[in-house]
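Need residues for this backbone.
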């Protein structure tokens, strides 16, 4: 179902803008179409233990590492993981969210009142253990929903998001510290959902994680010829270790408040970077002290980390001064493998400043096309980063493809997270992971013998 790479845009940004204008020409909704509570039930997930190889910084095998892995959640092609500051593990790759408070020994399933069939979702952790997510289901009316967990009340809530582009495939979620003024109301934060199969030009913004009645088209809002210089402030914020989004958002939530959006391949974007104005909720182009080329994170110390992947290596650069000066290392993929994804290599990166750890998840093919999931663990305690080790996840014994054109096994994106103590959870796929038909929700089309990604937790 998921299309990670979009085909050539057949609906122009101008046409999309007209469609959006028409959609909101009438009275703007005061809130989402409906907000309902979601129930939580204990979920009997398959839980396993396995050991996989570990390589040192020079690519030499030095032993093995034991992992707990689970087939919880996910769908045919993707498993999305995140962690909160309280240590809760979150998963929302498929129809609904799941979570575990004991590193994957036991799981809980979050079920909305809306009947769902074969959806997909993503989420991020907010401050204090709060959670914000989005789920899209093509098979029950092409509808999009916002998910919010409020830790103080231990309550999950779900909202309908009626304003979106058609076929809102593979939605990604960004959380940004405020304050933001949206529709004349001031909010302490903003969440942004980006998605779409035909085009990802249209995004929707919320000030409470549920009401997504505010549309945004960054490529049209970010205009002008003279871009002001913007320097990310080096400010400590413990929440920044956990609200880092998927690389597909192309966003950088800022510790001091606000968010940056980087140029990406889906929009006719007029500048290298834009900043969301916190008083108007509109994007404006800015200049940065550096030219971003990859996935950028800001950790709890306020330090910046940028990862730029290529076919057989990755560059990780670290800046302690808001992007003015950088120190970097190159990481070579072991055993001469090549990262899946071609010109847009599969990867995810999370940085935990308190633990001093950066984790980069990739999937790399051998000469026969068999994909091996890996996590590069980098020491970022000091200004000069240093590769510590490389974890293999799974057996690396199946071929996978990306996107709806794939007829065999699919693995559409990588996902990794770092717990408060520096340990890791990540997605992987091999011959031992279950056939999708054995999971919670049977898809519309699926053939026997296909595996689906699972989540591995470092012990």
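Answer:
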């Amino acid at each position: 179902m998921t299309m990670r790479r979009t085909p050539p845009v057949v609906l122009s940004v101008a046409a999309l803008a007209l469609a959006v204008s028409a959609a909101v020409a009438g009275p703007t909704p005061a809130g989402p179409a409906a907000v309902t509570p979601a129930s939580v039930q204990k979920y009997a997930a398959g839980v396993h233990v396995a050991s996989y190889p570990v390589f040192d910084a020079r690519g030499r095998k030095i032993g093995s590492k034991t992992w707990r892995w689970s087939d919880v959640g996910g769908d045919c092609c993707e498993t999305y993981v995140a962690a909160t500051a309280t240590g809760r593990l979150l998963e929302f790759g498929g129809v609904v969210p799941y979570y575990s408070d004991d590193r994957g020994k036991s799981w809980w399933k979050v079920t909305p009142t809306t009947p769902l069939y074969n959806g997909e979702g993503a989420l991020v952790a907010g401050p204090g253990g709060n959670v914000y997510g989005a789920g899209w289901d093509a098979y029950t009316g092409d509808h999009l929903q916002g998910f919010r967990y409020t830790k103080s009340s231990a309550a999950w809530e779900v909202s309908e998001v009626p304003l979106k582009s058609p076929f809102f495939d593979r939605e990604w979620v960004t959380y940004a510290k405020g304050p933001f003024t949206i529709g004349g109301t001031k909010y302490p934060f903003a969440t942004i959902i980006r998605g779409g199969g035909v085009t990802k030009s249209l995004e929707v913004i919320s000030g409470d994680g549920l009401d997504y009645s505010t549309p945004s088209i960054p490529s049209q809002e970010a205009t002008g010829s003279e871009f002001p210089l913007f320097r990310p402030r080096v400010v400590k914020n413990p929440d920044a270790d956990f609200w880092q989004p998927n690389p597909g958002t192309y966003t950088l939530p800022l510790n001091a408040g606000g968010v940056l959006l980087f140029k990406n391949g889906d929009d006719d974007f007029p500048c290298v970077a834009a900043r969301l104005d916190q008083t108007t909720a509109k994007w404006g182009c800015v200049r940065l002290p550096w030219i971003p080329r990859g996935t950028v994170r800001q950790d709890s110390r306020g330090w910046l980390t940028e990862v730029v992947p290529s076919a057989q290596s990755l560059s990780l650069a670290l800046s302690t001064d808001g992007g003015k000066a950088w120190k970097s290392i190159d990481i070579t993929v072991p055993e001469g493998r090549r990262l899946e994804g071609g010109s847009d290599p599969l990867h995810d990166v999370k940085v935990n400043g308190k633990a001093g750890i950066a984790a980069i998840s990739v999937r790399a093919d051998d000469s026969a096309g068999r994909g091996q999931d890996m996590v590069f663990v980098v020491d970022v305690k000091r200004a000069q980063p240093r590769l510590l080790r490389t974890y293999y996840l799974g057996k690396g014994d199946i071929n996978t493809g990306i996107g709806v054109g794939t007829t065999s096994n699919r693995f559409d994106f990588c996902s990794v997270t770092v717990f408060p103590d520096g340990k890791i959870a990540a997605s992987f796929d091999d011959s031992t992971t279950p056939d999708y038909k054995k999971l919670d929700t049977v898809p519309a089309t699926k053939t026997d013998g296909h595996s689906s990604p699972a989540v591995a937790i470092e012990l």
